Structure formats: C-alpha cells, structure tokens
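Hey,

The postdoc asked me to send both predictions to you directly instead of through the lab channel. I've kept everything plain text so nothing gets mangled by the mail client. Protein one:
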Amino acid sequence: MYKKHSTIAMRNFVQSGILTLIIGSAAALASIAPAQALVFNVNGTNYDVSTVTETYSSASAQLSTTPWYGNSTLAASLSQAVYGSALGGQAAGTEYPTLIGTPIFVTDTYTYSANTYYEGQYVQTDGFQRGASFATNDPSLETFAVMSPATVPFDIPGGATIPALGSVLALGILRKARKFTSDNISYTATKKVN
C-alpha cells in the first residue's frame, strides 16, 4: 500500500514561511486605512486634495507638481475651501498643530541671504488667511496639501490600495509556492508503507 507524505509536506509548508507571509499580509491589510482625500470645487474646477505629513525636503518633489504651485491665488482659495473640512489641519507632532487650521498649500521657493525658503498659503485655526514662509531645510514635520493620485474607475474602500497589495501578496505566494515545490519534490513522492 502506498501513502503520500502529506504530513511532511504540510510541516514543510508551515516552515517555508508561506503561512507566515499569508497571516502577516492579512494583518497588514486589515490595519491599512485609506488616505483621506476630498474633492473641493474652486472657480468651477474640482481638486482632489489629500495631505502628507513630512518635512519639506522629503515632500518637495510631490509639492512642486500640484496645480497651485506657482499660483498663490489658487492656493489661498483652496486653503479657504479646505478650512473646517474633514481634511483637517496640521497633524499632531507637527510644528504648529494648534495654530494652523489647514494643510499648507506650497506655492513657490525663493532664496534670500544664501538660504532657501518655501512659501505657501494656509488658514489659521481662528479663520484668518495667511501666507507661510519657512526654511526648506527645516527638520520640522508639516502637513502639506497634495493632489490625490488618480481615482480608481470602480468604487471600493481604500481605492486601489487593497487590489494592489492583494496582487503583490498573490505574487509572493506564487513565488514561494514554486520554490517550495522545487525544494521539496522528494516529499511529494509516494513510499510503500508496511
């Protein structure tokens, strides 16, 4: 009589890390919260705005591609539209979380006395419109307004985050499974049992 060694194959499956990969990925997916993004209409144009909380240096490439970069009038209008919305103001841990009531809409950079600064528009927590000017090398975290990534053509919670991570997870499982199969080929053979 011949019997497959399914017990050995299952033990190797668990030891191979695939089970850990599946459980870890499921936990990571469960803890992901979709980025908060809202659409604001200014002068008949919709702007899909979200935020990033980073230093200016780490966010500068993304900030310079926004439609309000180079347009302080648009930045001021958007910051007024955002004020009091669910998008919120400065995140906890930023330099002025109780003073600035909106994300900073960066509009420009300039150099003065060998230092480089960025300018932007925001609304204070008391409702007054302000212009900002901070050093670009300031290590403080700030909450900046950015354009949201392209919208997903179908409506699912979290946008494209969940399908994208699911695809990566599936690819990882397939690669592990192929490696597992080729490394453990001898365990799938049959053996005569007395």
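Protein two:
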Amino acid sequence: MFESNGVIVVNVLIIGYLHDKYDKRVFRTVNALSKRAKVMYQYFSKQPAKPYYEGNVHYYPLTKSSERNPLKKIKSRVDFDRSIVKLIKTAEYDILYMHAFPFSMPLAAFKWAKKRNKVVVYDLHELHPEDMFENLPAPLRYLKRFIFWNVFRKQIELCDKIICVSQDTETTIFEKIGLRKPSLVVPNYASLKLSSPSKNKEICIVGKTPRGLSQAHIKLLSRLNEAGFLIKVIGYTPNFPDDLKYISLEALPYERMMEEISKSAFSFISYDPPSGKSSKNYMFALPNKFFDSISAGTPVIVRDSFVTMSKLVKELGIGVVIEPEDVDKSVEDILRAYENYEILFENVVKYQDMFVWDEVKEKEFVEFVIG
C-alpha cells in the first residue's frame, strides 16, 4: 500500500490459478478491482507468454506442460503449484485474492500470505470438499470428504474474508466448520441482458463440458421432440441417439451465445451428479448458464435436486422444476408451462436485473474486498 498524489493506492494480487485469462467470474474481479487498486493478475496460459502491463493491471501468465504420463503429469502440476506459491511469497501486494488454491500444497499459499501480514480473500467458485473427486466409490468418497473438509477448515481459518456463489453454500460452510468470517455472496451474474419475445420452439442446453444425462433424460428429450421441440446444444457435441432431433453449435463468443439462448423457448439445466448421489456442491449449484439464461430472457427447466436453483425458479416463477425420472409428469409440466408461456416470460423480464452484474453489485463487491 502506498500513497500517490495524496491518495492511498492498494495493491491486489489475484490468483486465477488454472482459469483462463478471460474466465467470466475471474476477469470480472480483475476489471472491478483495477478501478480502485493496482492489480497483479495471474492466469493460466496454454502457451508460454510474457507478463505485460495494461492500465492498472499487471498481467502475469503462467503455463504448465501437458503430459500423458501420470507421473510426469503430477510433476507438472506440482511445479506449477510451486510457481504460484513463489509468486505469493515474493510479489508486492496488500490483498491476496484467491480464485483457487495450489492443489498439491493446499495450505501453503494461505500460510505465506498470512506470514507476510497480507489480507486474504478466498473466492469459492465451488464447495471444494464436495466437488473434487466426487466420482470415487462410496467408502473412498466419504473419506475424501472428511479429509477435504478438515483442510478446507484450515484454509478458512487463514482467510480474512470469503466470497460464496450462493447463500446456501455460505450457510453450509459456517455451520459445518463452526467458524464465521466476513463474507459476501456473489453469484455468477450474467454480463448483459436480452429480452426477445420472439422465440423458437426449441430447448437449449448450454455448456463447454458435456454433462451426464441419464436414460430418463434422453427419453424426456425424445418426448419433447415428439411434442415439436428441437433440442439445441451450445458449446459441445453431444452423444445423443440418432433418432433424437437436435442441432449442435460450437462454443460461441459470449454475446453470440446469449443471442442463441434468447431465441430458445427454454434453457435445460438438468444433469446427473458425478457420483450418482447429490453432494452439497451439486445441490447448491448456481452455474453461469442459470444466470445467463434468465438474463437472455429465457425461462429455465431445472431439476428438482438442484435445491438452490429450484427454490429461485419456484419463488420467482421463471421456469419449470422437474423430476426427470418421472418422464410423464416432467413432459406434462413443461407442456403446461409452454401453454402459459406469456406469464413465464413476463416474470423472467420482471426479475432479470437480479441476475445481471451492474454498478451497484460491483460497488458492493469492491467495498467488501478493499474497504
């Protein structure tokens, strides 16, 4: 922290870890905080690149080798993690803002920052103890959660402030670890809003990562095909049966993606958890696609096991909550919603501003981090 022309200037080191440079959530913090502070921004680059300055931001790309050999892959990750910790040990900053942590040394970054008397802000994109390795078989999964929750508690102890994506996640953390810290809920807000009343009779599925769809999901989509709905997948090529009518679009620039979502009657957010059993990270998920869909003016179809999303959909009347295993009822509920689509659309437009990042939300965020 230093004084320039009578103004106190704060230095913030933002650790993006393995997030790409323009990851929506990460880059939003860079843009917001650089309006009030000098920012050093570490992000992942697939190719070697040199650090550079632009405005108030010192861009600091780090890369790691891509290895197929398991042992070399582990070494590559450990070397990358060491470079992150070295940066935290040596860089000049007042506030350390962590979007993720070096996985092979989960406490080192926090400990070094505290040893240097820095403020540590931890942005929890996920509920980590119930996110990683959730596809392990039951006995190992429960042991993993026990170990990870203990590590996670130590991380929180070393933090000054935490940021969560949902109120349910925040509540779960404080109840589970028996410890409170100053906190702020910052969901994955959309960056813009659209409200096209002209809709195609189609259901879009958005995402860069293919999600697990059960046979019940496939049957549900097939029944919706029979009812006249085209399935539109944005971001990846699905492994659908040949008789399912769908179109697939490659990953699009954000504005184009939002335009495509806005053309659809519904956005479909229903997939199976990695382990086949719902973790709290799964239950309390508030993914980008949820906020983007509402902000694009498109009602959502949400699985009932997504507790937080389902609660919002029901309270605001912005979509349909389904139980995909009950195909008949799910189809019936979706078709009924389509018959009353004008009401759904009006509700979506009414509550859109809740789902979009704006100056008020940004000011609250910056004051929490720097103030």
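Summary for protein two, as requested: The first strand starts at residue 2 and ends at 4.

Thanks,
C.
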